[in-house]
Amino acid sequence: MPLLFFALVLLAVEPGNLRADTLDRVVVSVGNTGITESEIEQEARFTLFLDGRPQPSDLSQSELQAARDRLIERTLLQEEAAAEDSDASGLNQEANRLLNEVRNLYPDEGQYRAALQAVGYTQAEAHLRLVENVRIVRLINRRLQPNAWVNQREIETYYRETFVPEHERKEKTPPPSLEEVGSLIREILVQQEVDQLLDEWIREIQTTRRVRIHSQ
Predict the structure, then answer these.
(1) What is the residue extent of each domain of the chain?
(2) Of 84, 190, 214, 215, which is least surrounded by CB within 10 A?
(3) From the CB of residue 165, how many other CB atoms can be counted at a distance below 10 Å?
């Protein structure tokens, strides 16, 4: 479960009314919090919006299941974040930066606004969603990054067994030296370790919350 994935899609505000007339059944409950079909669809479409991808008329079952799982995990993490008195400085600025990055994925402002409207969000609602993205990513980093250890041997192994083969497959130039890319590899490995720790943390949180999938 890559963190970049969390950096782009986390729950913040009440979802819009996308197909709320027909898709309003609660299909998942996390403690006392219900997640509806319309929220799951909107989550899947918001992910497509953030990636700059077109909106299909119908979402695949795998897209909906992935969105459902994200909403479950996000609901659990929101409760953890709400229990902490964390520093809120810079949240709006970081959310604005992320939203500007998304805007740059679209050819012009008109297409960006149309894509946002297709999801069922206003600009303000999208901004609030990304504020919560940043808030929860900060929580993950505070909790997990101090425990994500990477040693030099792991860096050397990744360079030899992963980085160099991938470079040779994609590029015609000789690969950069380990000294040149060591810091980058360390960041990659730390992120992988954080992802593993996050999976473990989510499973731990679930043991204290009742998560029920009713139907979808």
Answers:
(1) 3-213
(2) 215
(3) 11
The closest of 11, 5, 2, 3 to 126, measured between CA atoms, is 11
SS3 184: helix
Q: According to the 3-state scheme, what is the secondary structure of 37-88?
A: HHHHHHHHHHHHHHCCCCCCCCCCHHHHHHHHHHHHHHHHHHHHHHCCCCCC
Report, at the CATH architecture level, how domain 3-213 is classified. Answer: Orthogonal Bundle (1.10)
- How do the pLDDT tens digits run along the chain, 216 residues long? 554 444 444 433 344 444 444 447 898 988 888 999 999 999 999 999 999 999 999 999 999 999 999 999 999 998 888 877 677 788 999 999 999 999 999 999 999 999 999 999 999 999 999 998 899 999 999 999 999 999 999 999 999 999 999 999 999 899 999 999 999 999 999 999 999 999 999 999 888 888 888 865
Question: Coil, helix or strand for 33?
Answer: strand
**Main-chain dihedrals φ then ψ at residue 14, nearest 5 degrees:** -60, 130
